[in-house]
Design a protein that fits this description.
Number of strands: 19
Shape: flat
Distance between the termini: 93 Å
Number of domains: 5
CATH architecture of the largest domain: 3-Layer(aba) Sandwich
Strand content: 5-15%
Helix content: 55-70%
CATH superfamily of the largest domain: P-loop containing nucleotide triphosphate hydrolases
Length: 723
């Protein structure tokens, strides 16, 4: 695959798409890299990127959300590491540590969910993990960005000395404060802070009585701020120790920088990976907003875009709550070139841009807003001539520029090219320009290039009708209102509706009629025929849609009736079964009633019993006899069920015993309450509640109202203590 010219990308508004993707990136480096995205040259690399974006998009709709990939770029730090004897700052080390940890988290996550994200796993798994980098940084710098005391023995010793000296400073200052306060030399505020030092707030009249260094005075001059002499010695010592601490910290950072310097290439790879992940995530977010997906990629050189939306138009209309019309278009070996005609403002140019932009986006590793049944191929070159390209600087007219562009097309066009030309042949004399455009189109056709053009020229419409692998198409218009429907229809050319549109816009009919007489009668008839065909097609489409609606309604009604029929049928069957059963029971009841009446009359038991047995045997003969084998199997099944039930009962009993033992043990371990006269109690195994009347030597007399009983306190449970 070859790269696509920047002019094509500009014509298709690809930079606008890139700016929208950049705005969805989380990192500064990701935003920069997103703006420089170009179509891929290598097909394998492109398929990997498309697959990764598709996997990231899938993560939005499942529970395995991909961890955060945010990072602060380390370009400055990498530049410093390349310079010998340079030292990184603490902030730089923290950024490096953060990048290393983020990569490690991603590697761990994708290893766990590699079945869901195989391509993303392969990408991060290719990185060599160096846990010693963040470990070395964490040994020196804490989570607050401070150098740890444990970074070196020398630093620990210096800091302990600093703490001791600061303690002595505070002690000496407190002593001076107490002494001068008792002498009433200090102002009401007693002390203040100047230049990060505690100072005494001395009354101006007593300034010479307080030994120390003057640091300043108040605005009124009534207070003099003095550092007590006792603290000055310790302050100088503290300054020396703080200087030593800075030197030791610098030495530690130098050493840490040297430890990390060999990993420059690894850190570059980590940063590149996270930047790529940021762009992949942004592409996935962009696709999610416009219902983008990865269509089927075919090798048969077939471009089938079903229900395709122009991304920029779709998102713009989505913000305004307006409808966007999708387009369906198909290019293949038997239909390589489509010539779209019809009036202006019908959507021809937007259809052209939709095809081109979606193809460029796909070849740049982005998902596109099309139906999932769409199928696409890749092109080595995408050539475009869209819009007015008049150049004032180069003194080129529109037509001159277009001729230069056509010359470029002729040099580059081959069977792996997609060309998109808007208003093909315009800018010159209609007949001469149309003839030249026809010649260009024939060359593109002979080279087996794929393309879509828009035109008003009748000769190009006729040529598309004559060439076996080219097709006319038009954008449907409502013939009554002359409003566009934004639907592309393949198979026939479109009328420009020149005179109809003019009439709608208030141009007098006499003037329109005069114009009609000035042109060839054949041209008017040809345009009128096309317009008539379009009207007929519109009617057919309308009729077809109505028939489809009626068909779907009839299908729904048929399904409803079938369901109702099946319900009625099942009810009839159940009623029939109930009726048959009731009839049998009535007959059986009549027989028993007859036997009972006979016995009532003659009181003979033997005939009654024999009659009853005969009735029972007759009924049993009607029942299906089970075979011995089935009876045995049923008996075995019952036995198995009984065994399973017995096992379950045993298990429940064991569990109950264990629970009971645990309860008894808990009861034993439970501390016994101390009973008092008046407490409400009950026996451990009883339910009746009584009140303790007397307590003596571990025995209690419990009053139950109707009677009293003498029991050991060990057998009692406390229900409610006396308040």
């Amino acid at each position: 695959m070859q790269n696509i010219h920047s002019k094509t990308l500009q014509d298709l508004e690809f930079p606008t798409v890139l700016s929208q993707i950049a705005s969805r990136c989380n990192t500064e480096l990701g935003k920069e890299d997103a703006l420089s995205i170009q179509p891929f040259r290598d097909k394998e690399e492109l398929m990997d990127v498309l697959g990764q974006t598709s996997e990231y998009l899938a993560s939005f709709s499942n529970y395995n959300r991909i961890p955060n990939h945010g990072f602060d770029h380390i370009n400055n730090e990498l530049g410093l590491l390349k310079i010998d004897n340079s030292t990184l700052e603490i902030a730089g080390f923290r950024k490096i540590g953060g990048i290393c940890k983020t990569v490690a988290i991603h590697q761990k996550f994708f290893k766990k969910f590699k079945e869901y994200y195989p391509l993303l796993f392969n990408k991060v798994n290719a990185l060599e993990l160096h846990s010693e980098i963040p470990a070395a940084i964490d040994d020196v710098i804490d989570k607050f960005g401070e150098i740890k005391d444990s970074a070196s023995d020398e630093l620990r010793y210096i800091r302990s000395q600093i703490n001791n000296v600061r303690s002595k400073i505070n002690q000496s200052f407190s002593a001076a404060l107490g002494r001068y306060q008792s002498s009433d030399f200090l102002d009401e505020i007693r002390e203040s802070v100047m230049e990060n030092r505690r100072v005494l707030a001395v009354k101006a009249m007593h300034r010479k009585k307080v030994k120390g260094t003057v640091m300043g005075t108040s605005k009124t001059g009534s207070i003099v701020y003095i550092v007590p002499e006792a603290t000055l010695t310790y302050t100088r010592e503290l300054n020396n120790l703080e200087f030593e601490e800075k030197e030791e910290i610098q030495r530690i950072l130098n050493k840490l920088t040297d430890e990390i310097r060999p990993y420059i290439e690894v850190l570059q790879q980590y940063q590149k990976h996270l930047s790529d992940t940021d762009i992949t995530a942004a592409k996935a977010k962009y696709a999610n907003e416009m219902n983008g997906l990865l269509p089927e990629i075919n090798e048969e050189r077939e471009l089938f875009l079903r229900d395709a939306f122009h991304p920029l138009l779709y998102l713009s209309n989505k913000r305004k709550n307006e409808k966007t019309w999708p387009q369906t278009i198909k290019l293949h070996k038997e239909n390589r070139i489509i010539v779209i005609s019809g009036p202006n403002a019908g959507g021809k140019s937007i259809t052209l841009k939709t095809i081109g932009l979606l193809q460029v986006m796909l070849q740049s590793g982005m998902l596109i807003p099309v139906h999932e049944r769409s199928s696409v191929c890749f092109f080595d070159k995408i050539l475009t001539d869209i819009g007015d390209n008049q150049s004032i600087e180069n003194h080129l007219s529109t037509y001159s520029y277009r001729l230069k562009n056509m010359n470029y097309f002729l040099r580059k066009c081959n069977d792996k090219t997609l060309f998109l030309i808007d208003e093909f042949g315009t800018g010159s004399d209609p007949e001469l320009g149309g003839a030249l455009a026809e010649a260009f189109l024939e060359v593109f056709y002979e080279r087996e290039a794929y393309g879509v053009i828009t035109t008003h020229y009748a000769n190009l419409k006729a040529l598309a009708n004559e060439l076996p692998h080219a097709t006319n198409a038009n954008m449907l218009f409502n013939s009554k209102t002359l409003e566009p429907t934004f639907q592309l229809v393949l198979g026939e050319a479109g009328s420009s509706f020149t005179f109809e549109v003019a009439q709608k816009n208030g141009i007098p009919y006499s003037l329109i009629n005069k114009a009609k007489k000035k042109i060839e009668r054949g041209k008017v008839r040809f345009d009128a025929t096309i317009a008539k065909l379009q009207k007929e097609r519109s009617k057919m489409v309308e009729t077809g849609s109505k028939l489809k609606e009626e068909e779907s309604k009839a299908r729904e009604e048929n399904e409803r009736l079938e369901k109702l029929n099946s319900k009625i049928k099942s009810k009839l069957e159940s009623y029939q079964e109930m009726y048959d059963h009731n009839q049998r029971m009535i007959q059986l009841g009549n027989k028993l009633n007859t036997a009972a009446e006979k016995y009532f009359i003659d009181k003979k038991k033997r005939p009654l019993i024999s009659e009853m047995l005969r009735i029972v045997e007759t009924e049993n003969s009607k029942r299906k006899k089970t075979t011995a084998k089935k009876a045995k199997a049923k008996q075995q099944e019952k036995k198995q069920v009984a065994q399973e039930l017995e096992q379950k009962i045993k298990k429940v009993r064991v569990e109950k015993k264990i629970k009971k033992k645990k309860a008894i043990q808990a009861e034993k371990n439970k501390p016994r309450p101390v009973f008092k006269i008046g407490d409400r109690v009950r026996l451990m195994d009883g339910k009746a509640v009584g009140t303790i009347d007397t307590l003596e030597k571990g025995k209690a007399v419990v009053n139950y109202g109707m009677f009293t009983t003498n029991v050991s306190v060990d057998q009692l449970d406390l229900v409610e203590a006396k308040k």
